[in-house]
């Protein structure tokens, strides 16, 4: 597998869909607050024009966002966007188009903002993988660059995608809702790609994938999670001693290689258990366990329910 294919593999295992919900067209002063999202939801915002102050009240983190910035909140934290003036926000009024998303406007005469807001939905029980391995806040910039990076750069690809989203959200054309939702799903993948390739992620899966020395291990584990991987094998692949590999992997991911491998296997197992007619023993073997009792124990520990309970829950939902 190529070095970037860990992301394709992740999104094969974990189904993520997107939905545009609101387009905000405001003049300052304005302020919008979002409460904590449901466990399987990831809010996102795209600044089409203008600027906004993004605040996470829990961490007391504040960051200025400008045109082209995209923010994802993989852990669904409560957050606030505002114009930064501290003035009382002007009342908004909403209207819903036939495409299903809402247009929210105010009559503010200050600095203008054009903002797309939506959510990504992660099929359970895979939301725990997202919460455990992606940062709380992920900010990426879409830049239409004609310089050295060229047309294939992640920021340039994001700029093209955001342009398409802007065009589709300005009219009420046939298929608009379906196109916007499909573009939202692509947005998720491109933001993760851009974040991992930028080398700016300091922790989690994106930092690991963006580290050239450790990337061979993550690629190998995603390519074949059922293989009985041993730490010396993974360390050799990265040209490191076992101790150095363990220390660097834990330092970047915040979890061990065994943790990641186990979570990958359990996510694959959750998908397999949804299939009718496949036994728990067969699923255990498929994801790399010779002992079905060991598999049951690990699945219950990681997923909070037994394989049988998950199977029944999944069948009810179909």
Describe this protein's structure:
The chain is built from 12 helices and 11 strands. By secondary structure, the protein is an alpha+beta fold. The two termini are 33 Å apart. Helix content is 42%, strand content 22%. The strands form 2 sheets. The chain has a 7-stranded mixed beta sheet with strand order 8-9-1-10-3-6-11. It is globular and about 65 Å long. It has helices at residues 5-13, 127-133, 154-168, 176-198, 204-209, 215-223, 231-237, 242-253, 257-273, 280-286, 292-303, 307-317, and strands at residues 16-27, 31-34, 41-49, 51-56, 61-66, 69-72, 79-82, 92-96, 102-106, 112-122, 138-141. α1 runs parallel beside α6 (215-223), α7 packs across α8 and α9 (257-273) packs across α11. It folds into 2 domains: 5-205, Sandwich (Jelly Rolls), CATH 2.60.120.810; 213-317, Arc Repressor Mutant, subunit A (Orthogonal Bundle), CATH 1.10.10.60. A hairpin with a 4-residue loop joins β4 and β5 (61-66). The longest helix has 23 residues, at 176-198.
């Amino acid at each position: 597998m190529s070095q970037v294919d860990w992301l394709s593999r992740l999104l094969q295992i974990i189904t993520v869909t997107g939905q545009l919900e609101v387009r905000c067209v405001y003049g300052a002063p304005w302020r919008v607050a979002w409460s904590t999202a449901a466990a399987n939801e990831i809010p996102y915002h795209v600044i089409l024009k203008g600027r906004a102050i993004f605040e996470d009240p829990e961490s007391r983190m504040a960051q200025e966002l400008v045109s082209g910035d995209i923010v994802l909140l993989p852990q669904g934290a409560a957050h606030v966007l505002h114009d930064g003036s501290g003035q009382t926000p002007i009342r908004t009024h909403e209207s819903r188009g036939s495409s299903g998303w809402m247009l929210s406007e105010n009559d503010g005469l200050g600095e203008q903002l054009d903002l797309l807001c939506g959510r990504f939905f992660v099929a359970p029980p895979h939301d725990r993988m997202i919460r455990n391995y992606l940062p709380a806040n992920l900010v990426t910039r879409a830049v239409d660059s004609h310089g050295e990076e060229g047309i294939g750069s992640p920021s340039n690809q994001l700029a093209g995608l955001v342009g398409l989203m802007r065009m589709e959200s300005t009219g009420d054309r046939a298929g608009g809702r379906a196109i916007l939702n499909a573009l939202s799903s692509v947005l998720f993948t491109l933001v993760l790609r851009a974040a991992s390739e930028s080398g700016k992620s300091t922790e989690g899966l994106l930092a690991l994938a963006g580290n050239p020395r450790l990337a061979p291990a993550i690629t190998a584990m995603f390519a074949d999670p059922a293989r009985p991987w041993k730490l010396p094998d993974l360390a050799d692949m990265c040209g490191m001693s076992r101790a150095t590999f363990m220390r660097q992997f834990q330092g970047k991911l915040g979890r061990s290689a065994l943790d990641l491998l186990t979570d990958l296997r359990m996510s694959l197992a959750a998908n397999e258990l949804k299939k009718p007619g496949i036994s728990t023993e067969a699923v255990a073997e498929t994801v790399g366990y010779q002992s079905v009792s060991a598999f049951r124990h690990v699945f219950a520990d990681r997923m909070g329910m037994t394989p049988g309970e998950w199977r029944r829950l999944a069948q009810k939902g179909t």
